[in-house]
Protein: Uu.00g091050.m01.CDS01
Organism: Anthostomella pinea
Amino acid sequence: MASRTLWSLLMTIAAAGAASASALTANTSTITCHCFPEDVCWPTAAEWAAFNTTVGGRLVATVPIASVCHYDNFTNYDAAACAALRDVWDYPQTHDGSSSSPMAQFFTNGSCNPFTAPSDPCVVGALVAYAVNASSSSRAESIADYRETLKFAATRNLRLVIRNTGHDYFGKSTGPGALALWTHHLKDVDVVDYTSSYYTGKALHLGAGVEIHEATQAASAAGLLVVGGACGTVGIAGGYTQGGGHGPLASSFGLSADNVLEWEVVTAEGAHVVARPGTVYEDLYWALSGGGGGTYAAVVSVTIRAHPDMRFAGANLTIVQGSEVADDVFWGVVQTFIESAPLFANLGVYTSFALQEGIFVVSPIIAANLSAAALHSLFDPTLAALNTSGMYFDFFVDNFASYLDVYDAVEPTNNVTEYNIGGRLIPRSLVETNLTALMATLQYIVADGSGVSGISVNVSSYPLDVANSVNPVWRTSIYSFVIGSALDQYNISANIPIQEKMTNDLVPALEAITPGGGAYVNEGDFRQPDFQQVFYGDNYNTLLAIKDKYDPKDLLYGLTAVGSERWASQSDGRLCRV
Ligand SMILES: Cc1cc2nc3c(=O)[nH]c(=O)nc-3n(C[C@H](O)[C@H](O)[C@H](O)COP(=O)(O)OP(=O)(O)OC[C@H]3O[C@@H](n4cnc5c(N)ncnc54)[C@H](O)[C@@H]3O)c2cc1C
Ligand SMILES: *[C@@H]1O[C@H](CO)[C@@H](O)[C@H](O)[C@H]1NC(C)=O
Ligand SMILES: *[C@@H]1O[C@H](CO)[C@@H](O)[C@H](O)[C@H]1NC(C)=O
Ligand SMILES: *[C@@H]1O[C@H](CO)[C@@H](O)[C@H](O)[C@H]1NC(C)=O
Ligand SMILES: *[C@@H]1O[C@H](CO)[C@@H](O)[C@H](O)[C@H]1NC(C)=O
Ligand SMILES: *[C@@H]1O[C@H](CO)[C@@H](O)[C@H](O)[C@H]1NC(C)=O
Ligand SMILES: *[C@@H]1O[C@H](CO)[C@@H](O)[C@H](O)[C@H]1NC(C)=O
Ligand SMILES: *[C@@H]1O[C@H](CO)[C@@H](O)[C@H](O)[C@H]1NC(C)=O
Ligand SMILES: *[C@@H]1O[C@H](CO)[C@@H](O)[C@H](O)[C@H]1NC(C)=O
Ligand SMILES: *[C@@H]1O[C@H](CO)[C@@H](O)[C@H](O)[C@H]1NC(C)=O
Ligand SMILES: *[C@@H]1O[C@H](CO)[C@@H](O)[C@H](O)[C@H]1NC(C)=O
Ligand SMILES: *[C@@H]1O[C@H](CO)[C@@H](O)[C@H](O)[C@H]1NC(C)=O
Ligand SMILES: *[C@@H]1O[C@H](CO)[C@@H](O)[C@H](O)[C@H]1NC(C)=O
């Protein structure tokens, strides 16, 4: 079986990786920090210009998108443009086409904040300094852009980041003084017939910059569907699939990583290779499929399994407690819903809920190959409890002819998060055996003024029968929970005590009832203690060995990424070896 041979291969690599890691120490011990702007080692203007010619003139110097809100330093001030920018700041689309703007506000360190006074400074600061706009006009040229960018960063000792859409909650696609390999414009999409020992059938071959909505549209036009996230502007080939990737179809077809057929990459050392099971790059395939974004190699394209499009049922439910209804009535209904999760999951139904004091919204609810009547009946216990509760509620359910139809009808618009977040995967066994403890913990978090969102999952199997490095905790989970606490967009440092409460109190409350569990590498607390075990589970040491094999100079870094414990950010943002 594919997975068993892979496992013995990985063990061999783990041993070899450990050896090469110690050989590396001698070379890099002299490099303590990456070069930082204004250091003597920082490239001169002439050197940047020379580098620019090696990437076909596609080097972009960062101009912060909010420079229209400030008098300095870019002389771009424009009150009307600033007002318009503030109105759309919360939308992913405002950031995902930029070469430098991260969606997670905290990681901008207030460098150029649209919400502060025009006289406040606007600097490049914590944003990437430069980006290479890898172009899709020619494949050979794109690969050359990757190689030249990786090479320039390595030889000049610059911090490198790979930036796709900028969605990352941990700031992994930004960095002070960094050179970004910017993949957004690699938009090629092809529907292909794929043949291998582990899959024969339709697939989508997607450039690194393709977003979920673009892949979904292309699949739909061919009568197909692909597993993608709820939020259409997330990129498929980047952090989403490399970190696992959940979404409305995951409980029917597996996580996005479970559907990867092959990865085309340029390694940190400049090798252009295709990683797939049954080849010498099987280890790289395994690591890229779930082991976290921006860590092992720079992805040029990914090929993922497609499924025939089908009928769907879609629904949503809104519940408002109201002042006249007792708390235990509200919580009783919430409990009835939470308890139903195994029923939904067994039938491949996706539910996404958001809970805060007095408000409970389940939206969207998406059910592949199920009728509206069958989906409705899964809600009978919750609706029966609601009927006698005296609370306001609104339930919608209908039939849809295709995935795009149901998605467009019931998927709410996604904003970039307006919260500080933490996360935890919730085992199916907890819902089945100790619902009381789970509900008490939810009440504790909500009483703090925070919210909890959860998506239900059933990803117990590997649908391709090929192993990958998704945290094994996913396989026994029924929910992925995300806690959201207030985010101060005006005053970045005001978020620190809120984040400390997340790390020291709210996430530990969930950890206490899920001992030995884990959290989703893409949707957790960036200050998570013991992140190696919590985000990667028992795969960590093997992932680290594979990283060291393909990135021996440790060029690829991200906060909480595999190997990141070897680096630390200083108070000025400089990244140094520890
Ligand atoms: C509004 C919103 C909604 C979300 N919804 C979902 C959801 O429904 N399901 C879900 O699973 N997750 C969801 N996420 C989390 C999402 O999966 C992560 O934020 C993910 O990291 C985004 O990947 P990206 O490539 O689009 O973003 P980026 O921030 O550009 O990159 C993320 C990471 O991937 C690396 N990376 C990007 N491109 C490449 C490449 N070509 N090669 C190697 N590394 C690369 C980057 O270096 C970085 O480490 C959501 C996030 C947000 C903000
Ligand atoms: C380390 O340095 C040696 C000699 O200078 C060189 O041969 C080797 O390739 C280097 N290794 C790495 C990982 O850079
Ligand atoms: C790179 O070169 C192009 C083409 O000459 C130019 O338009 C661009 O401004 C240059 N980039 C930088 C950062 O100077
Ligand atoms: C930005 O402007 C300030 C003065 O307002 C100046 O001190 C600083 O050096 C400038 N920074 C950059 C990066 O241009
Ligand atoms: C999304 O952002 C917009 C614009 O800031 C705001 O009006 C809207 O309420 C936000 N939606 C949610 C669900 O937070
Ligand atoms: C990046 O390249 C694309 C073409 O591939 C171009 O349309 C876009 O304007 C470029 N963006 C920047 C900021 O240079
Ligand atoms: C849809 O469900 C029916 C049973 O209700 C089953 O026979 C059929 O194979 C399913 N189709 C798909 C594509 O899963
Ligand atoms: C709830 O009440 C409505 C209207 O009174 C009724 O149609 C529906 O069947 C009830 N639902 C359940 C699940 O009891
Ligand atoms: C539920 O979906 C329906 C159908 O698209 C939509 O009209 C309604 O606004 C949605 N309700 C919520 C709370 O999202
Ligand atoms: C969902 O659960 C069913 C029944 O427990 C299981 O057979 C199926 O494989 C699961 N789906 C996935 C994608 O793991
Ligand atoms: C920002 O928040 C910090 C920490 O809470 C506080 O000390 C500081 O006074 C705040 N600054 C402003 C301008 O409100
Ligand atoms: C439920 O969880 C609580 C808190 O972790 C624990 O004290 C209790 O013993 C558990 N009960 C059962 C039946 O497992
Ligand atoms: C964050 O901003 C402060 C104030 O401008 C600055 O002193 C500090 O060096 C910055 N830190 C990082 C990590 O960018």
